[in-house]
Amino acid sequence: MSSSLTPAAPTPGILPAALRLSWDASGINNLVTWIEKLGFALLSVFGIYADIIKLENVPVAWIEDMAAPEVIPAAGSFALELQKLQMKAYYDIKRDWLLAAPKMVAFIIYCCNESSILRVEAQHAAAFKLAIDDKDR
After folding, report:
1. Exposure string over 105-135, b if 16+ CB within 10 A, otherwise e
2. Residues 6+ away with beta carbon under 8 Å from 58
3. What are phi and psi of 29, to 5 degrees?
4. Separation of alpha carbons 51 and 49, rounded Å
5. Is the distance from CB of 116 to CB of 21 less than 8 angstroms?
6. Residue 20 scores a pLDDT above 90
7. How many CB atoms neighbour CB 42 within 10 A?
8. How far is the C-alpha of 74 from the C-alpha of 53, rounded, in Å?
9. What is the pLDDT of residues 119-132, one digit of tens each?
10. Closest Cα partner for 54 from 71, 81, 36?
11. pTM for this entry
C-alpha cells in the first residue's frame, strides 16, 4: 500500500491523521481509541451499518434471505399488509448493506495510517486480500 490511499481533502467522517489507526516499530498502537473513534465516524456516514464495529461481524439478517413467512389464510388485509411491509424493510436493509459494504471497506482503510495497513498486510495477508477483493461481504 502507498500513501496514495490517504484522501487529499477532508472527507466527511474520515478520521483526521492524528486519530487514524497507527502502529510504530515497537508495536505501540492506538487500537482501542481508534475502534471507538471509527465507530462514531462510521455511524456518521453509514448509520446502522456501523454496528459491525461493535458486533465484530456482519449480522446474518444483512446477508441471508428472510425465512418464508407463515401463510395465515384467515389473516385480514391489515395483517397481510403488515407482513409485506416487514418483508420490504428486511430486504431494504439487506440491499443497502450490499451497497454500503464496499464503501465501508474503503472508508476503514482511509481511517488507517500506512503503518497499520502494512502491518495487517504482513500479518494477515490472506484475510486482508479477501476483505479487499470481496468487499468484506
Report:
1. bebbbbbbbbebbebbeeeeeeebeebeeee
2. 52, 97, 101, 136, 137
3. -145, 175
4. 5
5. yes
6. yes
7. 21
8. 43
9. 888 999 998 888 88
10. 36
11. 0.74
Q: Is residue 84 helix, strand or coil?
A: helix
Closest CA to 42 of 93, 119, 97: 97
Phi, psi (5° rounding) for residue 26? -85, 0
- Under 8 Å CB-to-CB from 83, ≥6 apart: which residues? 69, 75
Per the structure block, which three cell numbers stand in for 80? 397481510
Q: What is the DSSP string of 89-102?
A: HHHHHHHHHHHHHH
Distance CA(134)–CA(8), nearest Å, equals: 26
Compute and round to an integer the Cα radius of gyration of the chain.
Answer: 19
The C-alpha angle with vertex 121 and arms to 118 and 125, in degrees rounded to 5, equals 170
Span 51-102, pLDDT tens digits? 988 888 889 888 888 887 776 666 678 888 888 898 899 999 999 999 998 8
